[in-house]
Design goal:
single chain, 26% helix, 39% strand
């Protein structure tokens, strides 16, 4: 019997963790051990040098997403968890894309880049590299429009996200089970 995925949805989790060696491996290991999928994972320092922010994009049905939040809450080095998908938040992804682009097509590619508020960051004899930031949907649209040029290389950061200023004081403490 096929597993029905009709109620599956994407979730963006903002996880504040203690800035210690092995924390990322512990979090990623929890996902691997439980068979949860990670669509993207980004980690970086915060304004507090003792705290790092991990942004995890995952998907599943509601019981699975709740289980992920509970399992994250059991990790000792996890300080706070926020479900950014359920809050008014800002999400961004960074794209670097190198495209085949002979000199006669540069003007049209530069115009397309401008429409998406991207930046040309490198130009070679037959290629251009473009940087673009924005929500995932914008990045995906740009990539699709660039495919006819010929994508030579592509790198993305994955989603980073934070709650909007009006939401920042409503931290959701990590659920703990003892």
């Amino acid at each position: 019997m096929a597993h029905e995925k009709t109620h599956e949805r994407k979730s963006v989790l903002g996880v504040l963790v203690q800035n210690q060696p092995g924390v990322l491996a512990h979090v990623a290991g929890m996902f691997a051990a439980r068979g949860f999928n990670i669509d993207s994972l980004v980690v970086g320092r915060t304004e507090d040098p003792e705290i790092s922010r991990i942004v995890i994009v995952t998907s599943g049905d509601e019981p699975t997403l709740e289980q992920i939040r509970k399992q994250l809450g059991k990790i000792v080095t996890v300080v706070k968890i926020r479900n950014l998908s359920e809050q008014d938040s800002v999400e961004r992804d960074l794209l670097l894309i190198q495209l085949h682009c002979p000199p006669e097509r540069r003007t049209e590619l530069i115009e397309l880049t401008g429409v998406f508020r991207g930046t040309v960051v490198d130009v070679g004899p037959k290629a251009m590299m473009i940087q673009l930031t924005g929500p995932e949907r914008k990045i995906e649209s740009f990539i699709e429009l660039c495919r006819p040029y010929g994508i030579l290389q592509l790198a993305r950061t994955g989603v980073i996200a934070m709650p909007r200023a009006s939401q920042s004081g409503k931290a959701e403490p990590a659920p703990r089970t003892d």
